[in-house]
Write a structure and sequence with these properties.
Layout (H helix, E strand, L loop, with lengths): L1 H9 L49 H14 L13 H20 L9 H12 L27 H16 L5 H4 L5 H9 L6 H17 L6
Helix pairs in contact: 2-3, 2-4, 3-5, 4-5, 5-8
Length: about 220
């Protein structure tokens, strides 16, 4: 695994992720409420209808509980192959992920040790997935010198998840010992397998995240 990790990292000197070029949308006013196919996500926009993290009069304990709920909510994964399914729910999840990222960026000490399981569960649920075979528009094997790589349709969510995870890794509150049971060989191997994706944005995100992991988890260097 060490050789594979070194090979992936050696091709990049990236030090940070580019900002997500996606603005979490407002709910589409043109949609008829309640008339959408739930699809593989098995949910709707009301799933994400809980108070904001930066609400007036909230105690730290209440904000912590809200963040915990939002991590759990964002483990719901939607099918982006059909852009017309679960539109409102996809938009609502995108806003929730953006809210989590903003909250983690503006405050310190929000990812306490008891929050680690929920954060890693959310990250794993969204990132670790089956990558489809690399084929071009004609059904032939993908040729990186001839064919244009396909964009990942779920990128509006994945980009935010990568940024949340990177914010966690870069936080001054990051606890190496507490993270070690989660960032194990299985976790890292699944990250490496995502390099089979065609989307250049995700591949660059993976390189940056692996750089951070490699820098934090010194035991991985041996």
């Amino acid at each position: 695994m060490q050789a594979s990790l070194n090979a992936k990292l050696s091709s990049s000197t990236s030090s940070s992720l580019s900002p997500c070029d996606i603005t979490p949308p407002a709910l589409s006013e043109s949609l008829d409420n309640g008339n959408h196919n739930n699809g593989n996500g098995n949910g709707n926009a009301t799933l994400f209808d809980i108070p904001p993290l930066i609400g007036e009069g909230l105690t730290d304990a209440e904000r912590k509980e809200l963040l915990s709920q939002k991590f759990v909510q964002c483990t719901v994964v939607f099918d982006f192959q059909n852009q017309n399914e679960n539109i409102e729910a996809k938009e609502a999840k995108q806003r929730t992920l953006g809210e989590i990222l903003d909250y983690m960026s503006e405050r310190t000490g929000v990812i306490t040790l008891d929050m680690y399981p929920k954060l890693f569960r959310m990250v794993s649920a969204n990132l670790f997935r089956t990558i489809p075979p690399q084929i071009n528009a004609f059904g032939d094997l993908f040729d990186p010198e001839e064919d244009e790589p396909r964009d990942e349709p779920a990128w509006p969510h994945l980009c935010l998840v990568y940024h949340i995870f990177l914010r966690f890794l870069e936080s001054s509150d990051f606890n190496n010992s507490a993270a070690r049971p989660y960032i194990d060989q299985s976790f890292t191997t699944q990250l490496l397998e995502l390099f089979d994706c065609e989307d250049v944005r995700e591949r660059e995100s993976l390189k940056t995240v692996l750089h951070r992991i490699y820098g934090k988890m010194l035991s991985m260097r041996s």
